[in-house]
């Protein structure tokens, strides 16, 4: 695993905007960064990332049955009791799931370590599945990358296959909050893939979903029989129409049983069931008897996004904290697997790199890389492309 500088495509910003990638830059700072790329060997991808991703996914899925009907465990995860039956029925009825992303710490040498599962509302989808593949093809055409370079990236193809395989009600709605350019761009991309698979996809902003006769309805009052939502379940159940979720016949993507896997409480539960697994880190629930955070450990909220409210203490005693709004629920502690450090020659600073490994259905489907000057990856962390080359 190497970080290698490369010349940017001169027209990449225009190419991004032509294809709907409007969020390539945040507040004047690049989110998409192609001034460098990461290179992996095929063995690293197959043995250290692809295989472990599918094994970790199966291990996580094996826990859902244990938890969905267990009140004590659902309570431990902080899931509201009024939705326990919905989650149980969703799992028992075999409601389908589409995708997820697990975040890994991996330096190219040892076993990748699972940091968390983003199994409800994972983003970085367009830039992983489409834009970094376009970057690879164009940099090979320009002669800046060898013509036999490859990429661990079957995300778009597998999503289209999945949409073609799923039996979804028609029309099928896709939803996000209206004022998020990133979320809207991600949902537009996913809806386009679904359309190519033959789905009659229609967009509706979360804010415009209504209710009538115990059902969710669109702006014209038609029942929403199927809905993909890029909006967290833990927020949905708090919304005004949250009670209608329990009475509606809407098929959800992701299903409500994903509330179990997207919760960081799944990490200590995984460790309890699979202790000493090489891709897991020791983890436990924090309680009133927990001691102050020790060196070599991380404190994470059960529910948080983009690194918010995470605190870690390195082996050397350096404390790194990211503030945020998720401080009113439970926390877990997880042993620290520091992100690998590379040198960013353009910015003349060290950078820390996180690997996101995608799962579509139950298959590994590619990776994305985010880097930051901090050990905590945030919403402002840059996205860099990668290649496979031996």
- Portion of residues in helices? 25-40%
The main sheet comes to: 6 strands, antiparallel
Based on CA inertia axes, which overall geometry fits? globular
Strand composition percent: 25-35%
Radius of gyration: 21 Å
Work out the number of β strands: 22
Question: Unreliable runs, pLDDT <50, ≥5 residues?
Answer: none
Task: Name the structural class.
Answer: alpha+beta
- Count the DSSP helices: 11
Distance between the termini: 11 Å
How would you state the average pLDDT, rounded?
95
List the defining traits of the structure above.
globular; 11 helices; five-stranded antiparallel sheet; alpha+beta; 22 strands; six-stranded antiparallel sheet; single chain; 26% strand
How would you describe what is shown here?
Keywords: ATP-binding, Ligase, Magnesium, Metal-binding, Nucleotide-binding. By secondary structure, this protein is of the alpha+beta class. The chain is built from 11 helices and 22 strands. The strands form 6 sheets. Strands 5, 6, 18, 19, 20 and 21 form a 6-stranded antiparallel β-sheet that branches. Strands 13-17-14-15-16 form a 5-stranded antiparallel β-sheet. The longest helix is centred in the first third of the chain and has 27 residues, at 42-68. The chain starts with a strand and ends with a strand.
Q: Quick summary of this structure?
A:
Keywords: ATP-binding, Ligase, Magnesium, Metal-binding, Nucleotide-binding. Strands 5, 6, 18, 19, 20 and 21 form a six-stranded antiparallel β-sheet that branches.
Write the SSE topology.
Blueprint: E1 2-5, H1 12-18, E2 25-26, E3 29-30, E4 36-40, H2 42-68, H3 71-76, H4 84-92, E5 99-105, E6 113-118, H5 125-141, H6 155-165, E7 172-176, H7 181-196, E8 201-205, E9 210-212, E10 215-217, E11 226-229, H8 233-236, H9 242-247, E12 251-253, H10 258-261, H11 266-273, E13 283-285, E14 297-301, E15 310-313, E16 319-322, E17 331-335, E18 341-344, E19 349-360, E20 363-372, E21 382-384, E22 386-388
Parallel strand pairs: 4-22, 7-8, 7-11, 11-12
Antiparallel strand pairs: 1-4, 2-3, 5-6, 5-19, 9-10, 13-17, 14-15, 14-17, 15-16, 18-19, 19-20, 20-21
Helix pairs in contact: 6-7
InterPro entries: GSPS_pre-ATP-grasp-like_dom, PreATP-grasp_dom_sf
Keywords: ATP-binding, Ligase, Magnesium, Metal-binding, Nucleotide-binding
Pfam families: GSP_synth
């Amino acid at each position: 695993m190497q970080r290698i500088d490369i010349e940017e495509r001169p027209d990449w910003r225009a190419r991004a905007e032509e294809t709907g990638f409007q969020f390539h830059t945040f507040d004047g700072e690049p989110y998409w960064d192609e001034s460098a790329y990461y290179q992996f060997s095929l063995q690293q991808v197959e043995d250290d990332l692809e295989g472990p991703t599918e094994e970790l996914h199966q291990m996580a899925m094996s826990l859902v049955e244990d938890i969905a009907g267990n009140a004590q465990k659902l309570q431990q995860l902080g899931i509201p009791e009024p939705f326990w039956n919905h989650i149980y029925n969703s799992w028992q009825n075999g409601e389908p799931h589409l995708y997820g992303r697990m975040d890994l710490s991996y330096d190219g040498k040892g076993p990748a370590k699972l940091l968390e599962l983003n199994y409800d509302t994972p983003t970085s989808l367009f830039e992983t599945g489409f834009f970094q593949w376009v970057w690879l093809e164009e940099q090979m055409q320009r002669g800046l990358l060898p013509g036999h370079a490859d990429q661990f990236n079957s995300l778009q193809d597998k999503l289209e296959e999945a949409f073609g395989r799923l039996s979804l009600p028609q029309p099928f709605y896709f939803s996000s909050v209206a004022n998020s350019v990133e979320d809207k761009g991600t949902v537009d991309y996913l809806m386009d893939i679904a359309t190519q698979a033959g789905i009659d996809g229609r967009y509706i902003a979360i804010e415009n979903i209504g209710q009538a006769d115990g059902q969710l309805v669109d702006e014209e009052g038609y029942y929403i029989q199927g809905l993909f939502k890029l909006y967290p379940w833990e927020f949905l159940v708090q919304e005004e129409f949250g009670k209608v979720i329990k009475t509606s016949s809407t098929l959800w993507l992701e299903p409500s049983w994903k509330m179990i896997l997207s919760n960081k409480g799944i990490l200590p539960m995984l460790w309890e069931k699979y202790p000493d697994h090489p891709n897991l880190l020791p983890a436990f629930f924090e309680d009133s008897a927990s001691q102050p955070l020790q060196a070599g450990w991380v404190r994470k909220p059960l529910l948080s996004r983009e690194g918010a409210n995470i605190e870690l203490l390195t082996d050397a005693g350096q404390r790194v904290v990211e503030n945020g709004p998720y401080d009113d629920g439970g926390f877990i502690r997880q042993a620290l697997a520091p992100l690998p450090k590379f040198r960013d020659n353009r910015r003349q600073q060290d950078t820390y790199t996180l690997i996101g490994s995608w799962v579509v259905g139950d298959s590994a489907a590619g990776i994305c890389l985010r880097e930051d000057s901090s050990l905590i990856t945030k919403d402002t962390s840059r996205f860099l492309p990668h290649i496979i080359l031996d």
